[in-house]
Amino acid sequence: MRTDYVILILLMGLATYLTRVSFLVFFKKVKMPDIIYRSLKYIPVSILATLIFPGIFIPNDKLDIAITNPYIIAGVVTVGTVLISKNSILSIILGIISLVALRTFL
Amino acid sequence: MQLKVFFTGIRKTIPLMIGVIPFGVAYGIMGSQAGLTIVEIAFMSMIVFAGSAQFVAVGMISQNIGFAFIVFSTLLINLRHLLMGLSLSSYLNKLRSGWLYILAFGMVDESYATTINHYQNSESSEGNPYFMLGSAVGMYIFWIGSSIAGGILGNSIKDPLSWGLDFAMPATFLSILIPQIKSVRILSVILISGTCTIFAYLYIPGKWHIIIATVVATIAGTIMETIDERRSLKCEQTM
To answer: CA of B175, closest CA in chain A: separation in Å?
Structure first.
């Protein structure tokens, strides 16, 4: 391994670790104000939405909100399956299968 | 007993562990194209353990961009972890600090989403650290393994992101998110976050879309909750 790359990777690791550890440890010592406490339950659903929406509506870095976008159809299949069957593994598998099928046959 | 929780953490993360494979392979391929050796590719996955930051870094390395700028970009891309740390902290603040320093290293998007969902659905207000540990270890092994596979395969395989497995991540997150929609307010928060994300994703580089959308949607949700509460309080008073 080249020394300069080792240093780069270690510094990248440090930068990443700092973002992960700081709030986790900081809010162990500091009591959060009530309003922050109240807002906490909206963070996970918001973050999940930010991870899901681009993957479905901006595939390959291009906005595609037409019904012909296979990711949207596969997303509908996933949501429909989880609502009907309450089975998350089944919904993930059906979602992936429907995406592959749509890509192959469309 | 704790071992069982550890394995539950791994088990609940399996779809995301499989879903990360094409991304790890793609990163490995990009890394070898950028001139990194297999050992360097693997070392970065072991030390940094952050997919999008690593993608950006190898992209910048291949364009000969300065190392200081790469480290600074890594910091910016990963600022979203602050929000994840904030939301996890209320479940983990009873733990010894040592645990937090270990768990923080493994807090990636996938282990965060799986873990916070598990903690929210469990009856206790305190999260079991072994669950998060299992989830993180599962992601860690698959991330490193797929990075190495990509580095070895190099250019000899077709674009791994076209396998269909790239949908495993959004599909898994959907299967976690949908059952959480228990009120119109939560649904509104999701739609606000999703809309903001799409606009920010298209117009702002980096990973700012996650931070901007999460902050906007979380504030919106909190305001809606406060208004609803005041309204129901008023109703009670007038009755």
So the answer is: 5
